[in-house]
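#onboarding

Welcome to the new folks! Below is a worked example of what a typical request in this channel looks like: someone posts a single protein sequence, and someone else replies with the predicted structure as tokens. Don't worry about understanding the tokens yet, we'll cover that in week two.

Example request:
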Amino acid sequence: MAIRSKIPVNRYIVKIEINTLYSSKYMTKNMLNKSVFCLFLWFSGLFWLSSAFAACDDAAAPKVNWANCDHSGKDFKNKDLSGAILTGANFSHADFSHATLESADFNFATLSGTRFDDARMANSRLLAVKAEGASFQRTSLENSRLSRAVLKNSDFTGARVNNVNFYEANLEAAVFIDARLNRANFEQTDLSYAKFNGASLIQAIFRNSRLHETIFYGADATRSIFDESDCRAADFTEANLTKASFRQASIDESIFTDAILSDTIWSNYKRCRASSVGVCR
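Example response:
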């Protein structure tokens, strides 16, 4: 009798242990899903709070929150808005001349016709902004991000734009005369009809970009990369293209009159002689 009673007891114990094991796995998975969901709600809450508590009537000050506010046409000359949250806001035709905007967040903002002349904007974020006809003359934009920004007909004359990321931006007919653009990233951008006269473009990246009829007259593009770009009818007259690269670039009808082509990599992978000027030899 002892043996017969022991077998069902052991089966019952095993069944309980198995059920407990499955229950434990289910509880662990359920807790993990709840944790992920709570984390999602927390981040969503932060985003909602950023917009919900934006005080559009607050005075201009560092770290002010003007997310999604309409300040079009307003005057912010000489104001300090460093670290401000300005995402999605409308600043069309506003004036930020001589303003301090370092580390400000303009992501997705509307900046059509806005003036930033002589402003300090280092480390600012302007992702996907709409800034056609905006003026950045003599502006300091070093280390800023302008990826996918619409900047057609914008003016960066004399601006300091070193280490700036313009990835996939639309810069058609933009003006960069005498600007400093060392190590700037123009990969996959549209720079058709843009002007880089006298600009410093040392180690700039133009890979796979549209440079149709773009002017580089007298620019210093030492070690810059133009690989796979459309450079048809571009003007490189008197430009310094020492050790620049044009691998697989389209250079039909491009002008290289008096351009320095020392050790330049040509579109057919040929390395130009150190003495090459105007023609890759």
